[in-house]
Design brief:
Elements: H1 18-24, E1 34-35, E2 39-45, H2 51-60, H3 63-66, E3 72-79, E4 82-87, E5 96-100, E6 103-107, H4 110-117, H5 125-134, E7 148-149, E8 154-158, E9 163-167, H6 179-194, E10 198-201, H7 206-217, E11 223-227, H8 233-245, E12 249-252, H9 256-261, H10 263-269, H11 280-288, E13 295-296, H12 313-321, H13 323-336, H14 347-350, H15 355-369, H16 374-399, H17 411-418, H18 429-438, H19 460-465, H20 483-488, H21 497-500, H22 505-511, H23 514-532
Parallel strand pairs: 10-11, 10-13, 11-12
Antiparallel strand pairs: 1-2, 2-3, 3-4, 4-8, 5-6, 5-7, 8-9
Helix pairs in contact: 6-7, 6-17, 6-18, 7-18, 13-15
């Protein structure tokens, strides 16, 4: 377990089954950006697009087929006066649009759309409340009241006078006789096809370790990096793993100065919805300074293989059996964890902290995701909201530095995981099974500061209450209390009169909890950027509580 000399470790070699090879045999490395008689722009991240099929589908206007092309992307196509936007199945790659004075504007960030349309900034109170509660916006909201985000698997068409919107139905999920094994095989096959020039963010957790196990099962050794200080659990575990398997490991320190100096880039790439405490993805990748030709393999959406928001063993099983009671209780508990705003906040914003506002949040989400069991709600909300809006922001920041590959967002892996039993999706059992099949020695390393091996049999207590997943990672000190950030957040920067009136935000932040500090500081930094970049601020706040 120490950082001694590299040992020779034998790991099993996994060959893909015929079904897996057939499902992935059309993937080729290609990204399309072209101008022809019809103007076409493709913004892509993750799995590369298939050149021949994609071009033919564009030519045919077969948008329903384009949606399910492997990868995360959006397409903009201009044909005369008509502009058509289409998003990939999960809608991870961000695209925003608005209509102003009879013209249609779109782009990869809200800032692009606001500046192109010469729009004043107008706060969306509902979106602010979503970030305060969930760390991300919901649905098609952005922080701007009149700028929408292109939805997952959505087509938006502007014909010069009116907008038409359509969401393509999800295809029937593939079924596999052994979904646990199929999910493992799809992971390995993805690495086999896309694993050249790989760099892997390695932590003490399960997702990155499952990806590493797939690499090692193929006899490949990716370059790894870990973020944090030397005493952090992630760093200690990553060093031990790297020493055991002879991996190159780069330890990346996260300096608050780097956050401050690059805040405008981070803010604009995430359209003002990624709080400073979660900027480490961009800062870490930038500090790493990767070589040209490298591809990053984050574990994004690996949590889908477990019951992310309530992975509590038999406690979850009981709650799932009582879903008519547990679903509203679960949604209400999430809303109550929201960040706090000072007294004197604008009524449109303060509404969401009232019982009526909180009830509205829960009722809308219950109507959208709560029609099945608690487990169904958790799965759907995680994949369609958290992955798209929160984790998607992290992917956006990573991909600003270097290309990303997303093994856990491929359709076949998701379909296989959907087919696994709920029992397998508790206590990280799929991860343990996959790692145990691909590279058993990786189960010997801990996931937290207790030093308990990942592969140790579950205790009765863990079966009842759930097993630990890994450390609660703090990649840097309390960023907003560092000297460099306190100097940035001056009284003038913190003045957001249209949201908080004459409230003394600086004084409020000295006693507020970390979540509230993070959210309010995000709003202050974003507003400061808008003003410095020449965007006027509309004093009127918009609140449309009907839908997200």
């Amino acid at each position: 377990m120490g950082d001694g000399p590299a040992l020779r470790v034998s790991v099993p070699r996994i060959e893909a089954s015929p079904a897996v090879r057939q499902a992935t045999n059309k993937i080729v490395t290609m990204t399309i950006t072209e101008r022809t008689q019809d103007t076409v722009l493709v913004e892509v991240c993750g799995e590369p697009l298939a050149q021949t099929d994609f071009r033919q589908q564009l030519a045919d206007g077969a948008y329903a087929r384009i949606v399910d092309t492997p990868g995360e992307f959006w397409v903009a196509r201009r044909q005369g006066e008509t502009i058509t936007l289409v998003a990939s199945r999960h809608g991870i790659k961000q695209c925003f649009y608005t209509v102003r004075e009879g013209r249609f504007y779109y782009g990869p960030t809200v800032d692009d759309v606001v500046k192109a349309s010469n729009s004043p900034w107008q706060w969306n109170a509902r979106a602010i409340a979503s970030v305060a509660c969930y760390w991300h916006t919901l649905g098609s909201d952005s922080l701007h009241a009149k700028v929408r985000r292109l939805g997952a698997a959505e087509m938006v068409a502007w014909d010069g006078s009116a907008l038409k919107r359509h969401t393509f139905a999800e295809p029937v999920a593939s079924r596999y006789p052994n979904p646990v094994g199929a999910a493992t095989e799809f992971l390995v096959e993805f690495i086999r096809r896309h694993g050249d020039g790989a760099i892997l963010p390695l932590s003490a957790g399960f997702d990155s370790r499952a990806i590493l196990a797939a690499f090692l099962s193929l006899g490949r050794k990716p370059i790894c990096f870990v973020m944090g200080h030397d005493g952090a659990t992630d760093v200690r575990v990553a060093k031990s793993i790297a020493a055991r398997f002879g991996l190159e490991l780069r330890v990346v320190a996260l300096a608050p100065k780097t956050y401050v100096e690059n805040r405008d880039r981070i803010l604009t790439r995430t359209s003002g919805t990624k709080t400073p405490g979660n900027w480490h993805t961009w800062v870490g990748a930038k500090t790493l300074a990767p070589e040209k030709g490298m591809h990053l393999f984050p574990g994004s959406n690996g949590e889908y293989a477990r019951t992310f928001f309530y992975d509590r063993g038999m406690i979850f099983q009981a709650a799932n059996a009582l879903s008519s009671l547990s679903v509203p209780a679960f949604l209400s508990a999430k809303v109550r964890r929201s960040a706090r705003f000072p007294s004197g906040s604008a009524p449109e914003l303060a509404y969401w902290s009232t019982p009526a506002g909180q009830k509205h949040f829960t009722s809308v989400l219950a109507a959208r995701y709560g029609q099945g069991s608690l487990g169904d709600l958790i799965d759907d909300f995680y994949l369609k909201e958290r992955v798209r809006n929160f984790i998607g922001n992290g992917i956006e920041l990573y991909s600003d530095i270097l290309p990303v590959r997303l093994p856990f967002l491929q359709k076949e892996w998701i379909d296989a995981v959907r087919g696994t039993s709920r029992q397998m999706r508790l206590n990280c059992r799929w991860h343990k099974a996959a790692i145990g099949k691909l590279c058993p020695p990786l189960l010997e390393f801990p996931t937290d500061e207790t030093g308990t091996p990942m592969g140790r049999p579950e205790s009765i207590k863990e079966k009842l209450l759930g097993a630990p997943h890994g450390p609660c990672v703090g990649y840097s000190p309390d960023l907003l209390n560092t000297t460099v950030f306190r100097a940035l957040l001056t009284t003038e920067t913190l003045r957001i009169p249209e949201l908080f009136g004459s409230s003394d935000l600086e004084q409020f932040l000295t006693t507020a909890d970390a979540r509230s500090r993070d959210v309010i500081s995000l709003l202050a930094l974003w507003r400061d950027y808008l003003v410095r970049s020449g965007t006027s601020i509309d004093p009127n706040i918009v609140n449309r509580p009907a839908v997200f």
